[in-house]
């Protein structure tokens, strides 16, 4: 039995090692390519022959592709969307978890059905609404688009609030606390994991989005986000000259998300597991 158990463990560890190598290979390749100092877009070897930082310098010094401006645009949109979306989602989830009202169950079912439809199905309608309001090709439009659908992402947060005993609310009410006092002074301090999870998801979505940003911003290159800007480097007439800088940009935009997950991993796991049980 022990030999069989050892063989099973050896097989599992071997499989996980192989999968890890497969998963890490493209990441390592992108990082190495970002430091490559020779060749064009495609070379027949993995490790660069020469290393340089010129690919990173070119991102911030060449006016043809203003990566610094794109990075700042993306950060502004992601941060604003994160704050607004987190507030909307947490408030919506708390209301549906704690307040009993007519047609509440019907609304929950309707929201579940609406969540099954991908957001890009409404892309054309959203674009014409923004155009009618003279908001197309603006960063404000992106913030509105990313934040407006935040309320439908309340299910995991609601599940987390359901795990907080309602007796805490009742005790606070006996002491004269209002709903607002309970929400800000009792519930929110106990809900740090789900708030962190919601904020991370709200930040990542606009940081990585391409479809909505491309449709809304059109050809306003000075308003581009990093996703659209990096894609523009891969056109047929620019890919050979800008491919290494493209990989350098890919590394740079991955750093904020990686650091966020590293520092918030504990709360992220607690939030998603605590909210998914209910």
UniProtKB/TrEMBL annotation:
Bilayer-crossing regions: 7-32, 70-94, 106-129, 141-161, 242-263
Classification via Gene3D superfamilies: MetI-like
Chief localization: membrane
Keyword set, alphabetical order: Cell membrane, Membrane, Sugar transport, Transmembrane, Transmembrane helix, Transport
Record domain ABC transmembrane type-1: where: 71-264
Localization per record: Cell membrane
Membrane topology listed for this record: Multi-pass membrane protein
Entry superkingdom: Bacteria
Cross-referenced InterPro entries: BP-dep_ABC_trans_perm, MetI-like, MetI-like_sf
Pfam families the UniProt entry points to: BPD_transp_1 (PF00528)
Family: Belongs to the binding-protein-dependent transport system permease family. MalFG subfamily.
Designated name of the protein: Arabinogalactan oligomer/maltooligosaccharide transport system permease protein
Organismal lineage: Bacteria, Bacillati, Bacillota, Bacilli, Lactobacillales
């Amino acid at each position: 039995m022990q030999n069989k158990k050892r063989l099973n463990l050896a097989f599992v560890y071997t499989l996980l090692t192989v999968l890890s190598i497969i998963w890490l290979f493209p990441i390592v390749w992108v990082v190495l390519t970002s430091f490559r100092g020779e060749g064009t877009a495609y070379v027949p070897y993995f490790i660069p022959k020469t290393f340089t930082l010129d690919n990173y310098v070119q991102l911030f010094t060449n006016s043809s592709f203003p990566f610094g401006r794109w990075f700042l645009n993306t950060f502004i949109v992601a941060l604003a969307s994160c704050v607004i979306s987190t507030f909307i989602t947490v408030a919506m989830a708390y209301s549906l978890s704690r307040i009993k009202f007519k047609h509440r169950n019907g609304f929950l079912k309707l929201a579940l059905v609406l969540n099954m439809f991908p957001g890009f199905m409404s892309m054309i309608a959203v674009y014409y609404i923004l155009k009618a309001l003279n908001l197309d090709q603006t960063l404000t439009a992106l913030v509105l688009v990313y934040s407006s659908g935040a309320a439908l992402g309340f299910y995991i947060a609601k599940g987390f609030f359901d795990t907080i005993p309602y007796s805490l609310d009742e005790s606070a009410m006996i002491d004269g606390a209002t709903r607002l006092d309970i929400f800000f002074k009792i519930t929110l301090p106990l809900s740090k994991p789900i708030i962190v999870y919601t904020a991370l998801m709200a930040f990542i979505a606009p940081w990585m989005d391409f479809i909505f940003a491309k449709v809304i911003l059109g050809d306003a290159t000075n308003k581009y986000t990093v996703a659209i800007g990096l894609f523009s480097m891969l056109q047929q007439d620019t890919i050979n000259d800008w491919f290494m800088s493209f990989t350098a940009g890919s590394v740079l935009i991955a750093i904020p998300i990686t650091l966020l997950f590293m520092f918030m991993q504990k709360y992220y796991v607690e939030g998603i597991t605590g909210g998914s049980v209910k």
